Amino acid sequence: MLTNKTIVLGVTGSVACYKAADLACKLTQAGAKVDVVMTDSAAKFINPLTFRSLTGRTVFTDMWDTLSASGVDHIALAEAADVVVIAPATANVIAELAAGIAGDSLTCTVLATLAPVIIAPAMHTGMWRNSITQENVAKLKNRNFTFIEPGYGYLASGCIGEGRLADIYTIMGTVRQVLGRTGNLAGKKIVVTAGGTREPIDPVRFLGNRSSGKMGHAVAEAARDRGAKVVLITGPTVLPDLAGVDIVRVQTAVQMKQAVAKAVAGSDALIMAAAVADFQPQTTSAQKIKKAAAGGKMTLPLVATPDILTETKGRFLKVGFAAETEDILENAKEKMRNKQLDLIVANDVTAPDSGFEVDTNRVSIIGPDSRTEDLPLMTKKEVADRLMDRIAVMLKPKPAPKGHTH
User: I want to staple 98 with a disulfide (CB 3.0 to 4.6 A). Which of 132, 136, 226, 229 is the partner?
Assistant: First the structure.
């Protein structure tokens, strides 16, 4: 997604400038060509040499300088950009852009570019909430600028409130989303489930499993990066929210079924990457069950949870995951037949480098007619991309028969 993309990173005069250095580093590590444009105020917080060292490219600070050794000025930057990101963005720069003022290299670049512009504000809470700032933000949103809302927490002033620069993970995700708007899943709606469910025994205990949600999150991210509108229905995880993805949080299998039934309306695909509990307690105690009162033993009657894939009906692609411990392919193919799936992804969760709570996976993707593609060990993000390759082809409109017109 980011490889060989030209990203113009605008850095303005906020104490959060040091976070922009981390962003420049991570964008560069992801394969992007990062051209940093700094305002005079930003250069007072952090030396331009820092960004040059991190990106290996010229840093632009003065529009009156002669052309750099690379022969690039702000007009050439504007034309070369695949996306412009201003992080951190001060209230002053937001106001200048809203008014169409081109007073320095950064504002000239933004006014001259046809590339999408992403703005990540950072300022004191009072400045952010000020009606003038909010009017300027609204103007820019109406002009199709993308804003990343500031975070809540401790500010440089010592106060607590809104105004912190959004975390780097969120900014990176937004860049990927914006760059992927015209991808091969543009216009498609994809529903993804992730994580395990928790079936309560009492207010303290639950039945669950080891699912971390990493595979489902990777699938949702891959779909988003290809332009899809993504709804991620997730059980409890510690993973951060995905930028540009609608998140629905649930606890139990019943709640997940209800959320899926609502989300699949108008969808093109349902991808069930969640490890939904197969059983739930027949009854749930309203109070914590005491070990002494139970005599040191507990008999826990269980009943089956809903089969979400089987019970969810609709005209959309259905993709399942099979986390198995033996007879991997045979069990996955049987699950595919029983649930009438279009694709199923099978893996051996007993392998230490594949399955639960790790960043890698080794899977087999089984398609129609039981055709199987065995993938080598790769990251879950890479697995998700390979799966999306298959789904994009399956969702591509079929050509009309020869001799027919519409």
Answer: 136
pLDDT in tens, 292-348: 777 778 889 999 999 999 999 999 999 999 999 999 999 999 999 999 999 999 999
Instruction: Show the tokens assigned to 162.
Output: 């809104």
**44 membership: H or E segment, kind and range:** helix 40-45
Q: Is 122 helix (H, G, I), strand (E, B) or coil?
A: coil
If pLDDT is split at 50, 70 and 90, which confidence band does 396 have?
Answer: confident
- 29 vs 272: CA distance, rounded Å: 31
Q: Are 35 and 6 in contact (CB under 8 A)?
A: yes
Torsion of CA 267, 272, 277, 279, to 10 degrees: 60
C-alpha–C-alpha distance, residues 351 and 370, integer Å? 23
C-alpha 304/C-alpha 297 separation (Å) is: 23
For residue 372, give Cα distances in angstroms to 42, 353, 363: 54, 21, 10
Would you call 338 a catalytic residue per the annotation? Answer: no
Spatial distance between the Cα atoms of 107 and 99, rounded to a whole number of angstroms: 11
Q: How far is CA 328 from the centre of its chain?
A: 30
* pTM of the predicted model as reported, rounded to 2 decimal places: 0.90
Cα–Cα distance measured from residue 225 to residue 204, given in angstroms and rounded to the nearest whole number: 38
Q: d(Cα 366, Cα 364) in Å, to the nearest integer?
A: 6
Does 236 sit behind a cis peptide bond, omega within 30 degrees of 0 on the bond before it? no
Measured CA distances, 176 to 51, 118, 223, 383 (Å): 21, 11, 11, 18
- Which of 92, 130, 184, 209 is flagged as catalytic? 209
Token pair recorded at residue 278: 């197969």
Residues 6+ away with beta carbon under 8 Å from 129? 162
3-state secondary structure of 83: strand
Phi, psi dihedral angles at 152 (to 5 degrees): -110, 135
